[in-house]
């Protein structure tokens, strides 16, 4: 069974139901904690009464700096929403690790961003070095991936689309809420990954709801493809794509064809004028809730609850 780990300003905690037991470790970074998993196991089996989880302030269980890599259009439902047809080439992009924030921290919309979007994603936390040239099979996955986290790939769509710039549009501070838990997996847990269900709600309105069975490129294949050019180390984070249901959706084909005939400035002006009528983008005062878990609770990554505010 997986073990959930919480990080606070005071250190690391093994979570058992609604209680948290301090982990006796000198680890400061996620990589150091993963090298001291025996300390986590000892805390989880100590029998100590612990502290109520509700009394703790969770920090991101993925410490920074680290590599943050993400997959683009990796769920069939998201591909449909985005207007893709046919085969979709696997694509990766980087996010600044300065965008990583806690699971209950406020998401801050920069003053120049009008179209702020959400993307719940399963995050893979590396437990071993993935060298360039590695080939990862399903059976190998436990050798490379130590655990899982809930992430939200918050996106400034007006920056992303007009500049075709993923790095900037997804890298502002607070744009990668992560946690609350790092769920450390045992080898047997990996057989249950496809049962994981990703859910995201805004102000209680369910927007995204899919299992990993909707995923196009699954984790082992993704790591193999990434290893063609990218090394990952313990504590690094791979976001594995989002299901359908984001605020941004492709326009109808007829509108898209008309837009293609316009000069770029006119095309984007018309597109964002239509998007201004879309109520699903995030605004100050909204609260985003995200969860990832299997139906039987064998793997449960906890709940993110992030309010949204505007930069001052």
The average pLDDT score comes to 94
Biggest sheet architecture: 10 strands, mixed
**Number of discrete helical segments:** 9
The CA-CA distance between the termini, in Å, is 44 Å
Can you describe this structure in just a few lines?
By secondary structure, the protein is α+β, with helices and mostly antiparallel strands. 20% of the residues lie in helices and 29% in strands.
Question: Which tags fit this structure?
Answer:
single chain, 312 residues, 10-stranded mixed beta sheet, 5-stranded mixed beta sheet, 19 strands
Tell me what you see in this structure.
- The chain has 312 residues and is α+β, with helices and mostly antiparallel strands.
- The protein is globular.
What topology does this entry show?
Blueprint: E1 3-8, E2 11-16, E3 19-22, H1 30-34, H2 37-44, E4 51-52, E5 68-72, H3 76-81, E6 91-95, E7 100-101, E8 107-109, E9 116-117, E10 120-126, H4 141-144, E11 145-152, E12 155-156, H5 157-163, H6 166-169, E13 176-177, E14 182-184, E15 197-202, E16 205-211, H7 219-226, E17 237-239, H8 253-260, H9 264-275, E18 287-293, E19 300-310
Parallel strand pairs: 5-17, 7-13, 8-19
Antiparallel strand pairs: 1-2, 1-14, 2-3, 3-4, 5-6, 9-12, 10-11, 10-17, 11-14, 15-16, 15-18, 18-19
């Amino acid at each position: 069974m997986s073990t959930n780990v919480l990080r606070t300003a005071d250190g690391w905690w093994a979570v058992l139901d609604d209680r948290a037991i301090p982990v006796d470790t000198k680890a400061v970074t996620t990589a150091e904690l993963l090298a001291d998993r025996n300390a986590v196991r000892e805390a989880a089996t100590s029998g100590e009464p612990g502290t109520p989880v509700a009394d703790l302030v969770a920090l991101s269980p993925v410490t920074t700096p680290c590599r943050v890599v993400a997959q683009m259009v990796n769920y069939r439902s998201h591909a449909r929403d985005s207007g893709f047809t046919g085969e979709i080439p696997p694509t990766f992009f980087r996010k600044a690790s300065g965008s990583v924030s806690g699971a209950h921290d406020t998401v801050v919309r920069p003053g120049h961003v009008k179209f702020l979007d959400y993307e719940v994603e399963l995050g893979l936390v590396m437990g071993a070095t993935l060298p360039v040239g590695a080939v990862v099979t399903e059976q190998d996955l436990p050798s490379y991936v130590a655990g899982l986290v809930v992430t939200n790939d918050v996106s400034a769509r007006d920056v992303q689309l007009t500049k075709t710039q993923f790095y900037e549009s997804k890298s502002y501070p607070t744009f990668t809420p992560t946690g609350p838990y790092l769920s450390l997996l045992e080898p047997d847990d990996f057989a249950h990954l496809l049962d994981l269900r990703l859910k995201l709600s805004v102000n209680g309105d369910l927007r995204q709801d899919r299992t990993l069975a909707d995923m196009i490129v699954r984790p082992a294949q993704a790591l193999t493809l990434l290893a063609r050019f990218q090394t990952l180390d313990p504590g690094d984070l791979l976001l594995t794509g989002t299901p359908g249901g984001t605020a941004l959706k492709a326009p109808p084909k007829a509108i898209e064809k008309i837009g293609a005939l316009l000069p770029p400035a006119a095309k984007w002006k018309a597109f964002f004028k239509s998007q201004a009528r879309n109520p699903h983008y995030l605004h100050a005062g909204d609260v985003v809730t995200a969860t990832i878990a299997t139906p039987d609770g064998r793997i449960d990554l906890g709940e993110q609850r992030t309010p949204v505010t505007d930069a001052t």
